[in-house]
Design goal:
Blueprint lengths: L15 E4 L2 H10 L6 E4 L9 H12 L2 E4 L13 H14 L3 E5 L2 E4 L2 E7 L5 H18 L4 E3 L14 H12 L2 E5 H11 L3 H6 L6 E6 L3 E5 L2 E5 L8 H14 L4 E3 L8 H16 L3 H4 L6 H13 L1
Parallel strand pairs: 1-2, 1-12, 2-3, 3-4, 4-7, 7-8, 8-9, 9-12
Antiparallel strand pairs: 5-6, 10-11
Helix pairs in contact: 1-2, 4-5, 8-11, 9-11
Pfam family, one: MbnB_TglH_ChrH
Protein name: UPF0276 protein AB7878_08805
Family: Belongs to the UPF0276 family.
């Protein structure tokens, strides 16, 4: 049996949280750092108990938490895996997270998982599939979920709409929210040659429930620069600038620092969160003191504050 005292979900504040990885759990439990919220990967908690669940259970008593899925493969041609869906539903019941999220992607076909978040073609057919899958997921969980835009290194020549239009329509038709990964927007803008600001401008502010920030790796591809969403270093200055622009366009949003490989000391993540907080604070309605109909002014003000 699963032993747990009832814990009511604490709402995610409009502040900057950190993605909690197993290597940092002991530090968090010992030092109780002043982090507004933590995010954990859902699949790591598909267990009836054990050391990791006990640690998570302790964390969620002191901090708001969100759960971020990476394995449901919402956009696959295969049906959703009923065992995975049942495990996620049970985890939601037990954990009572404030936010639940997944990805706009596919990663499994024919029962084989590819250990990656693979992009979809942006077509009406793929959109209809994603609307149906997100509706199935939300019905199964009994709650609204957020879906995240993924980084990609290929594009489909038969796509009929830009990615931001696909996401906005998906949110409108399914009633889901969007987890907007600002790093992924920038990575894809370089890899596929589009305007990152146009992407942000095409996202409806009311649909956004959270933002992600992470670091990328610069490579040289056959056709020019190639950015890899590696999550193994600090946020790039270009992504900080795009984050500031995003806040100016969409308003202050809960934000998460992600770091998944070559994990640094926890203090490095706290420093990244501090930088994001300085930017976020410039865009709170009661603090920015600027005409809200001029987002470019907000962007310039926020960048100046971050640089200072």
């Amino acid at each position: 049996m699963f032993p747990s005292r009832p814990v009511r979900a604490q709402p995610i504040p409009t502040q900057v949280g950190i993605g909690l990885r197993p290597a940092h759990v002991a530090h968090v439990l010992e030092h109780r750092p002043a982090v507004p919220f933590f995010e954990l990967h859902s699949e790591n908690l598909f267990c009836a108990g054990g050391a990791l669940w006990d640690a998570f259970d302790a964390v969620r008593r002191d901090y708001p938490v969100s759960l971020h899925g990476v394995g449901l493969s919402l956009g696959s041609a295969d049906p959703l895996d009923p065992a995975h869906l049942a495990a996620l539903r049970e985890l939601m019941r037990r954990a009572e997270p404030a936010l639940v999220s997944e990805h706009v992607c596919w990663g499994a076909i024919g029962g084989r998982h590819y250990n990656d978040l693979l992009p979809l073609p942006y077509t009406d057919e793929a959109l209809d599939l994603m609307v149906a899958r997100v509706a199935q997921l939300q019905d199964a969980l009994g709650r609204r979920v957020l879906v995240e835009n993924v980084s990609s290194y290929i594009h489909y020549t038969h796509s009929t709409m830009p990615e931001w239009e696909f996401l906005a329509t998906l949110a409108e038709r399914s009633g889901c929210g969007l987890l907007l990964d600002v790093n992924n927007v920038y990575v894809n803008s370089v890899n596929h040659g589009y305007d990152a600001h146009a992407f942000i401008a095409g996202i409806p502010a009311a649909a956004v429930g959270e933002l992600h920030l992470a670091g990328f790796t610069r490579k040289q591809g056959l056709g020019g620069p190639l950015l890899i969403d590696s999550h193994d270093r600090r946020v790039d200055p270009a992504v900080w600038a795009l984050y500031d622009y995003t806040l100016a366009r969409l308003g202050a949003q809960p934000t998460l620092i992600e770091w998944d490989q070559d994990l640094p000391d926890f203090a490095v993540l706290e420093d990244e969160a501090r930088l994001a907080t300085a930017c976020l604070d410039q865009h709170r309605p009661d603090e920015r003191g600027l005409d809200e109909h001029h987002p470019d002014e907000h962007a310039h003000a926020g960048l100046a504050a971050l640089a200072g």
